[in-house]
């Protein structure tokens, strides 16, 4: 039912609406009025107001400390470092610390603002008549007057400690987002230039987890190997194998066209990076008659009998070769690391 359908005599009078009085006992839309205002302890005791002020300032200071801790955590903790927290279980210490510190920083700003509003700002409820949508000059003047009155009642001007700590908390929180810009690209380090391979590390068969011997590799076969000491349950296994995975093939020495490839092999056994130089896919398709290997992602094709040069596809350069030999136990071993970075070209490559 609209107000036009209600008999005029049942509508509250202007005087009743203004003062909260009920015009008629059976009026369902009567204004119940406002309860009498009860002052808070902070309104009558300045010491209580000071305690509330200190509590709000403490929350803002805690927010600033949490923001600083967020930035410190981002710099200090590695992304692959784990932490056991009961009852959550194993989590990344970096992700946990970032979530906790940023959550505390934002919560303390909100809690401080709420506590400020509930204990120090004016809580007197006021009623105002409805007015047309367009703002008349006197209305604009009243709005500005009300704003000035609210600012004065909030204590924003005279409570310098609250104002300073709030500005500090609000100024520091955006730094969390600025620090995250670091993830737009890797820092200029050398971690992409090297792998786990070094002189003396044995080649471990990834299927049997046993050291590879020359007699284990027959002509026409394709074997995958990883460095000695790397295990699948290692915390950094995925990071290391993504750079160190090897393809082992045996080619008749007289079929090897590249002189350096022959020198770096052992009795025709050659070891090349398994990581495609296009976008880093693992290579796993080998054609034993032509000695070509094919990347299944974008069909880049490499000739393992000719220095693993690119003969087809979008890959930009040949697969890196690992120089190998045989140790005293008769097992295949690395004689150093790759002579160039494995995988796709990157901007530090030079």
Describe the structure concisely.
The protein is of the alpha+beta class and 350 residues long.
Q: What form results from the Cα inertia axes?
A: elongated
Estimate the strand proportion.
5-15%
Largest beta-sheet characterization: 5 strands, antiparallel
Query: Spans of 5+ residues with little confidence (pLDDT < 50)?
Result: 1-23
| Average residue-wise pLDDT | 85
Strand order of the largest sheet: 3-4-5-6-11
What is the structural class? alpha+beta
Oligomer: single chain
Share of helix, binned: 25-40%
The CA-CA distance between the termini, in Å, is 79 Å
Task: Describe the secondary structure blueprint for this structure.
Blueprint lengths: L13 H6 L21 H4 L1 H31 L5 E4 L3 E4 H27 L17 H18 L5 H13 L1 H7 L22 E3 L16 E6 L9 H8 L1 E5 L8 H5 L5 E5 L11 E3 L4 E3 L6 E3 L5 E4 L8 E2 L1 E3 L5 E3 L16
Antiparallel strand pairs: 1-2, 3-4, 4-5, 5-6, 6-11, 7-8, 8-9, 9-10, 12-13
Helix pairs in contact: 3-4, 3-6, 3-7
Name the features.
single chain; 350 residues; alpha+beta; five-stranded antiparallel β-sheet; 34% helix
Walk me through this protein's architecture.
With 350 residues, the chain is α+β, with helices and mostly antiparallel strands. Helix content is 34%, strand content 14%. The chain contains nine helices and 13 strands. The strands form four sheets. Strands 3-4-5-6-11 form a five-stranded antiparallel β-sheet. Helix 3 runs antiparallel to helix 4 and helix 3 packs parallel to helix 7. The chain is elongated and about 105 Å long. The N terminus is likely disordered.
